[in-house]
Design a protein that fits this description.
single chain; two-stranded parallel ribbon; Rossmann fold; 4 helices; five-stranded mixed sheet; alpha/beta
């Protein structure tokens, strides 16, 4: 079987010695691409090198930027070390660990279900919609996590399903008090 030939491939690296098409540091936002530029973005063993663990601002800024450059319905395919892998923190250049649970925070539908309680009970999921308006859904069957790695494919939902606070119609518990 032959090697896959890419068409319209754009490579990016922060090291010009690797001879990418675009030299750019992914920590520097915005990325040097127009909105809705790509059908797919592939980030294999990249995302764990960005931001800092616990730095929610950079986490959402990075994924918002990836969402911005994807076309509607575009795909983000990525791999990173599993939190159970010795390489998650053993590699001195790794700055963040992602898990399948982390991906939930990138899906506006999950905020509606888990934070607002639409269609069921609320959970303890933190609400980052004040700073995150992009929207991805995990492609069914494309997220795998084992002892060594996490691999996933997210699809960009455009327009985003983000809703302003006054339009969310959150489920609220009502208590009736008897006299």
């Amino acid at each position: 079987m032959g090697r896959r030939v890419w068409s319209r491939l754009v490579t990016l690296d922060n090291n010009a010695d690797h001879r990418p098409d675009v030299v750019h540091d992914l920590e520097m936002l915005p990325y040097p691409f127009e909105d809705d530029s790509f059908d797919e973005v592939h980030a294999y063993e990249v995302l764990e090198h960005l931001g800092q663990q616990g730095d929610w601002w950079s986490f959402f800024a990075q994924f918002s930027e990836l969402w911005r450059i994807l076309k509607p319905g575009g795909f983000l395919a990525a791999t990173c070390p599993s939190y159970r892998s010795m390489w998650a923190w053993g590699d001195p250049s790794h700055r963040r660990v992602l898990t399948s649970g982390t991906l939930v925070f990138l899906d506006q539908g999950q905020y509606r279900r888990q934070v607002d309680g639409v269609g069921g009970a609320r959970t303890a999921m933190s609400d980052f919609r004040f700073c995150y308006r992009a929207d991805f859904v995990a492609v069914p069957g494309a997220c795998r996590e084992d002892d060594e790695s996490l691999s996933f494919v997210l699809q960009a939902v455009k327009p985003s399903r983000w809703l302003p606070l006054d339009a969310r119609g959150t489920a609220r518990a009502t208590v009736a008090l008897d006299e």
